[in-house]
Amino acid sequence: MFVMLHKPTLNLLTSGPYGLIFSSFVPFYFDIPISTRYRVFGIRFTDKSFIYLAGLQLLLSSWKRSILPGICGILAGSLYRLNFFHIRKMKFPEFISSFFSRLSSPATGSSSTAAPSRNILGNAPSYAGRQVEGNYPSSMGAATIEPPEDAIATLVSMGFDRNSARQALVHARNDVNAATNILLEAQSH
């Protein structure tokens, strides 16, 4: 067996981030809404079809060496999606998370300006009656500004209901990107 590990010509698995890439296909399939549908030569496509085709090409690119890492990635993404063994509640120890928090923001001198940590029961708006984990700045203390109609319309065009879109925009201080993240996180829980 050790002979197989030392001979470079006998590489059984492709190196690279296959597991990470293919595990991200699971939330992409379930959480990202389809915004465009069209037909080409009678075959139905969506705006997500070409991402799937690129993933299939990557999966089959090294044939036998890339199939196993790709399938393991899809399996890992599925287990996370199903919250198998309550994996979503697992956290890194505080000293590890604070180390990487300081490492990721070396320009700031104090740790008080570092990114806020995720709290289990955040005060983000609910989507279909569910609470989401909030890691967005709270809008408490600031005057609530009514979101612009075009921002609400943008979120509604993505498939979110109007009231949830408005609540998310208020919570995200009218930042459409942050509001989209809030709504997507709410759908995944």
Account of the protein in words:
Among the domains are: 16-62, no CATH class; 149-187, Orthogonal Bundle (Helicase, Ruva Protein, domain 3), CATH 1.10.8. It has 189 residues and is mainly alpha-helical. The N and C termini lie far apart (44 Å). Strand 1 (37-40) and strand 2 (43-46) form a beta hairpin. The relative contact order is 0.10. It contains 9 helices and 2 strands; from the N terminus they run H-H-H-E-E-H-H-H-H-H-H.
Provide key terms for this protein.
189 residues; mainly alpha; Helicase, Ruva Protein, domain 3; two-stranded antiparallel ribbon; flat
Topology:
Layout: H1 2-6, H2 18-23, H3 25-31, E1 37-40, E2 43-46, H4 49-61, H5 64-81, H6 94-104, H7 149-157, H8 162-171, H9 176-188
Helix pairs in contact: 4-5, 7-8, 8-9
Give the termini separation.
Answer: 44 Å
Please work out how many helical segments DSSP would assign: 9
* pLDDT averaged over residues: 76
Q: What helical percentage do the residues reach? A: 40-55%
Low-confidence stretches: 108-136
Identify the overall geometry. Answer: flat
Portion in strands: under 5%
Number of strands: 2
Give the topology string: H per helix, E per strand. Answer: HHHEEHHHHHH
Largest sheet strand order? 1-2
Alpha-beta classification: mainly alpha
Largest sheet: 2 strands, antiparallel
Radius of gyration: 21 Å
